[in-house]
Design a protein that fits this description.
The complex is a heterodimer of chains A (about 240) and B (about 230).
Chain A: E1 10-19, E2 22-32, E3 37-41, H1 48-55, E4 63-68, E5 71-72, H2 78-81, E6 84-87, H3 99-109, H4 115-125, H5 141-153, E7 159-163, H6 171-186, E8 190-195, H7 198-204, E9 207-212, E10 215-221, H8 226-240
Parallel strand pairs in A: 3-8, 3-9, 6-7, 7-8
Antiparallel strand pairs in A: 1-2, 1-4, 4-5, 9-10
Helix pairs in contact in A: 3-4, 4-5, 5-6
Chain B: H1 2-22, H2 24-43, H3 51-79, H4 83-89, H5 94-124, H6 132-157, H7 163-190, H8 199-224
Helix pairs in contact in B: 1-5, 2-3, 2-5, 3-5, 3-6, 3-7, 5-6, 5-8, 6-7, 6-8, 7-8
The chains are: A alpha/beta (about 240), B mainly alpha (about 230).
Chain lengths: ~240, ~230
């Protein structure tokens, strides 16, 4: 008997999406397996956030498909949505709830066992345990970002999507985030990281892509030469800019 | 179904916790209710129209506009930090999200009505105690339809530029049948008319609730997804 077909954790086929006359995505393809981290670099307006929102199931593509473990994620079922965690510009947190109340609420939505205990453990993991009773609306940008990371990872997703996660973070918060991302890679989660910051992205990635004007102009396993990559990135953005 | 209910209760609990922690909409609705009743009381000419004849219309105008204040908040709080994306990303179905909002709005509007009714009885000297059972039943039925439609319209109006103005503009045309039925039934209850006179309006109210609850559940998904 032939072994069952093995599907990549995340496969993206020919994704396209427009907003009125603006073509935000024009045929994006890639596949990722467990433990692979794809860093997507690109200038403003390249369609990176649109791509992440489609991967998260928040936006429908006009063409193409997203497959999670071989199953379509467009109009994804609850079981598919459970597999994804998104860290975005926005925190998705409620200012009027405390840090632990925010996490307990999301824990209930994701059906985690003992949401209160899990919320406290998640706060511990992002060094916010002593802020459990602090209202989200009174937290600093760095603390909020750590709380948003705890929210996104609360249900232990096997696919983690990050949209400019280092924006607005101080050095300590950025270092904490970097440690979280390294941990995700070690735990063999599949990560898609969208960033302007080539240094951060290249440090964490196993694969890299350059997205310009809605297209991947390059997508490949990371090669070792950062200076060469920087030059290729500058050329790609200049050629399409 | 169990999971839908569990998610709906989590969402409703979160909304009510946020509302009663700030009390912004609740206090606004109560102050608005007292002001409307006071204005109607002092503006009317008691020698021209009796309080009992005016009372049903005033009661439902008050409930309707006080309830709108709460419905405006239903999705406005999800705009904060794009929390709606967090809900859409979660395994909670769109039906659970809608039902959670409906439950929270029912509690909110129900509480406002529970406080407004005694105020109304005091201002207009209408003996509500003797007809409390049928009156509460009419209020409950009309409130379900009001909240079912209002929650859907709130999800649409929240993404417009003038959300607080758009909600009544979108919503009030749909509220004509249940508010008319509620006013007619309330008038008959206050006048001590037999139950048989209200059956036609009662059927309309029940049919409206069932039809619009089902339609709103089906349509809701399309109002919140990009």
């Amino acid at each position: 008997m032939a072994p069952p077909a093995r599907h990549p954790v995340l496969a993206v086929r020919d994704l396209a999406r427009s907003f009125g006359p603006v073509r935000a995505l024009r045929g994006v393809d890639f596949t990722l397996d467990a433990g692979e981290v794809l860093a997507i670099f690109g200038p403003n307006g390249a369609g990176k956030t649109t791509l992440l929102r489609i991967l998260a199931g928040l936006l429908r593509p006009e063409r193409g498909e997203v497959l999670l473990g071989g199953q379509s994620a467009v109009r994804s079922a609850a079981s598919q949505r459970r597999r994804v965690g998104l860290i975005s510009h926005a925190t998705f947190l409620y200012d009027g709830l405390t840090a632990s109340e925010n996490l307990e609420f999301y824990g209930r939505l994701y059906g985690v066992r003992d949401p209160r205990a899990r919320a406290l453990a998640a706060l511990e993991a992002v060094a916010l345990a002593e802020r459990a009773a602090t209202f989200a609306g009174t937290m600093s940008r760095g603390m909020l970002q750590r709380l948003a990371i705890a929210r996104a990872l609360l249900h232990e997703p096997d696919i983690v999507l990050l949209d400019e996660p280092f924006t607005g973070l101080d050095q300590a918060a950025a270092a904490a985030l970097r440690r979280q991302l390294v941990r995700l890679r070690e735990e063999r989660r599949t990560v898609v990281l969208v960033t302007h910051n080539l240094d951060e992205g290249l440090e964490l990635a196993t694969h890299t892509a350059i997205q310009v004007a809605g297209r991947f102009v390059e997508c490949a396993p990371k090669d070792g030469n950062a200076a060469d990559y920087r030059r290729r990135y500058a050329e790609a953005t200049a050629a399409h800019g | 179904m169990g999971e839908v209910l569990r998610h709906a209760l989590a969402i409703a609990g979160k909304d009510l916790r946020l509302e009663f922690r700030s009390r912004t909409a609740f206090l606004s609705a109560l102050v608005f209710t007292a002001l409307v009743l006071a204005i109607f009381q002092f503006a009317r000419d008691p020698t021209a129209v009796s309080a009992v004849d005016l009372a049903p219309g005033i009661l439902w105008i008050t409930f309707c506009f006080a309830g709108l204040l709460g419905l405006n908040r239903a999705f406005a709080l999800e705009r904060e930090n794009r929390a709606l994306d967090g809900l859409l990303l979660s395994p909670a179905s769109r039906t659970a999200l809608y039902l959670g909002k409906v439950l929270a709005n029912l509690v909110f509007v129900g509480l406002v009505e529970a406080i407004a009714l005694p105020l109304f009885a005091i201002f207009f000297n209408v003996p509500v105690l003797g007809v409390l059972g049928p009156l509460v039943a009419v209020i409950a039925l009309a409130t379900i339809g009001f909240v079912a439609v209002g929650t859907l319209m709130s999800s649409i109006s929240v993404s417009t530029r003038f959300a607080e103005l758009m909600l009544p503009v979108l919503m009030l045309p749909f509220l004509m049948p249940p508010i008319t039925a509620a006013v007619q039934m309330t008038a008959r209850i206050f006048a001590g008319r037999p139950f048989s006179e209200t059956i036609g309006w009662l059927k309309l109210l029940v049919a409206y609730d069932v039809a619009f609850l089902v339609v709103c559940i089906l349509v809701f998904e399309h109002t919140i997804e990009e």
